[in-house]
Amino acid sequence: MVLQYIWFLNEKSRNMHRIIFIFSLILTISKITSAETIQIDFTPYDSYSIEVAKIDVGDTIEWLPKNEGHNVEFLGGPDFDSLPEKSDLNAFYSVTFNLSGVYLYHCTPHGNTGMIGLVIVGNDFHNLKDIESIELSRTAKSVLERLIRIAKSDS
Ligand SMILES: [Cu+2]
Prior knowledge:
Elements: H1 2-33, E1 37-41, E2 52-55, E3 60-64, E4 73-76, E5 93-96, E6 101-106, E7 116-121, H2 128-132, H3 138-153
Parallel strand pairs: 1-3, 2-7
Antiparallel strand pairs: 3-5, 4-6, 6-7
């Protein structure tokens, strides 16, 4: 009788584990499907339509070549050794961000005149000092300071 009861408990906990497993599977799947995609245009004013993009880990940003002569080139991120590769001029470009932190990119021809953008992944500013120490033109530097203020103001 006691043995039977223990067996019953085991069976019950096994079912419980199965239920927990299925639940976490559902949660994982819904988390994957809830990953978002943000679209940023190249504007006619030599800028990006969204200068500060705040996203979650796993989200994707797509840059749309709505205007000619622009691209995306990453200057810094949480892992300087594995930055996304530079995009071609006038090309559609898409990056999925799987590492949290601050990313800085610019347009190769117009970076010096302030065509830069920030991506904040997971509201994580741990590498901000590294981003701030990247060498930029005076104009780009002042744009970066403005973008950092924006990023921090709604963090
Ligand atoms: Cu440009």
